[in-house]
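Technical annex B. To support the medicinal chemistry partners, we prepared a structural model of the target in complex with coenzyme A, based solely on the information shown next.
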Amino acid sequence: MTEQIHEQATVTTRTLHDGLLELEDRPPRVSLFSMIREDWRVNSHMKSRFVLVLFRCAHASYNDRRRLTRALTAPYRFVYRLIVDWVMGIDIPCRVTLGRGVVLYHSVGIVINEAVKMGDGCIIRHGVTIGNKLGDDGESYPPTIGNRVEFGAGAIVIGDILIGDEAIIGAGSVVTRDVAPGAVVAGNPAREIARHAPRVR
Ligand SMILES: CC(C)(COP(=O)(O)OP(=O)(O)OC[C@H]1O[C@@H](n2cnc3c(N)ncnc32)[C@H](O)[C@@H]1OP(=O)(O)O)[C@@H](O)C(=O)NCCC(=O)NCCS
């Protein structure tokens, strides 16, 4: 039974990530335009493409090293927040580090803490929360997400934890501890139900 689950999980992950893995032969640093093109390619929903184009521009504007450019583009960041957060209900602040080729499914009710760093090729379904936990020292501790991590619908990941490459977070799971690379976790609290060897290069 365990072996069956293991095999199933491996097949599911491989199918889902096949398209995303193509992106791995890319140069390490790319232009804003290339980032947008990669997102466009891996997303089939127009809504997701739209959100990601707006996000990439807001992120680039926030991270511009020239103070004047940052100041001049501040109104755009406000418009981004207005449309994507207030109107569409997707809270992905422009400070968030999203890796290349991120996939948004359904693009509803996603909340990501602004200090989160996420690797390439992750899949984020509706209702996902990736949030911080306040430490006793009053500091905010967000999770760090590896490459090609898949988040099931309604998954909640909180605190100063590390989600390894190609981990799969089951729908509705609550994750408050590190997840090993290639692990499939589910439930509240999330427990490992299978593991496959991640294709880390
Ligand atoms: C986590 C997940 C990838 C596991 O898939 P799988 O490897 O095929 O696992 P199985 O369905 O064989 O389930 C294995 C065990 O884990 C349990 N399980 C699976 N997913 C679970 C979840 N999200 N929460 C709690 N338990 C879960 C099953 O009940 C089963 O338990 P059992 O052995 O006691 O019967 C999958 O269930 C999942 O949640 N995918 C997210 C997909 C999603 O969000 N879809 C929404 C599209 S809109």
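Notes passed to the chemistry partners:
The longest strand covers residues 191-195.
Residues 173 and 187 are 5 Å apart (CA to CA).
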